[in-house]
Specification:
Blueprint lengths: L5 E4 L5 E5 L1 H15 L7 E6 L10 H9 L3 E5 L8 H14 L5 E7 L1 H10 L7 E7 L7 H6 L3 H11 L9 H4 L6 E8 L20 H4 L6 E6 L9 H13 L15 H16 L1
Parallel strand pairs: 3-4, 3-5, 5-6, 6-7, 7-8
Antiparallel strand pairs: 1-2
Length: 278
């Protein structure tokens, strides 16, 4: 982020090259030629972590999705060093690089979902099929409202942390709703007060259940879990895999969609038409 230094890493984090992006790309081309690696194909899942986390937080889900035959890409980005739209540019580079892949699904945690929505404000890819959002503050995080004036919070969470609030003129309210199929999984305590007394209503200790509920979702599920651990929760993992494969979170019973108000549907449809025209 600071030096513009790149590394070429394999799936085991072994470094094959470092330096400029061009140097790393040249080394990758040499490896592909030497090993006679075939072009990518098939179905893939991109895992996108939240603020202050890394791709390593998805190891359990990564393995589970690979066992189902998906090409899984756990993406790292400097979540505390840049604003959310800047992180969306990192995601854009990743999606562009998946040449030959037929289908792209997304599984996102916390701020990672806002990064995807920011990406959709500028880009689209017809290969994106489904997304599961886990603990994403789609309507803003009250905790960010409480802590944004705290110097330690600002130092640790950086410019993106300042964009997580619930203010009406903030970044989150301007982000589009995905125009592909997506589901929401929320961590909760299952009570009216939740885990955190600072947050009104049920919550996962960091994000309220109400804030995760992005209208337009085709399915919604609550699991008893704290925010940081939802991506390793067995129920959440199985529901995620099921939605990626079948478009439903529950093994039995009807989906629980989050309906959009008529006015929002019209606004989203118009925005989607404009993005398609671009």
């Amino acid at each position: 982020m600071l030096t513009g230094h790149y590394r070429l890493l394999d799936g085991d984090d072994y470094r094959h090259a470092s330096g400029t992006r061009e140097q790393c790309q040249k080394r990758l081309d040499e490896i592909k030629k030497r090993l006679k690696l075939p072009p990518m194909s098939g179905k893939s899942v991109i895992l996108l972590h939240g603020i202050f986390r890394s791709s390593k937080s998805f190891q359990k889900l990564h393995s589970r999705l690979e066992s189902e035959g998906y090409h899984v890409f756990s993406v790292d980005y400097p979540s505390t060093r840049l604003e959310i739209p800047g992180a969306a540019d990192y995601l854009h580079h990743v999606i562009e690089s998946l040449e030959g892949v037929d289908e792209i699904n997304l599984v996102v945690h916390s701020m990672g979902g806002l990064v995807v929505r920011s990406y959709l404000a500028k880009h689209q890819d017809p290969r994106i099929r489904r997304m599961v959002m886990m603990g994403v503050p789609n309507l803003g995080a009250r905790m960010a409202d409480h802590l944004r004036s705290n110097l330690l919070f600002r130092a640790l969470y950086g410019p993106a942390g300042d964009q997580l609030g619930t203010e009406k003129e903030g970044l989150i309210t301007s982000l589009p709703t995905p125009d592909f199929e997506f589901a929401v999984i929320a961590g909760s305590r299952g009570t009216l007060k939740g885990f955190n007394p600072i947050i009104s209503g049920d919550d996962d200790g960091t994000v309220s259940v109400a804030s995760t509920r992005l209208p337009g979702a085709s399915d919604f599920l609550m699991v008893r879990c704290l925010h940081s651990f939802i991506i390793n929760n067995d129920d959440a993992i199985e529901a995620t895999v099921r939605f990626v494969e079948q478009g439903r979170l529950r093994e039995k019973g009807d989906p629980h969609p989050i309906r959009r108000p008529k006015a929002q549907r019209a606004s989203d449809d118009a925005a989607g038409a404009q993005r398609s025209a671009r």
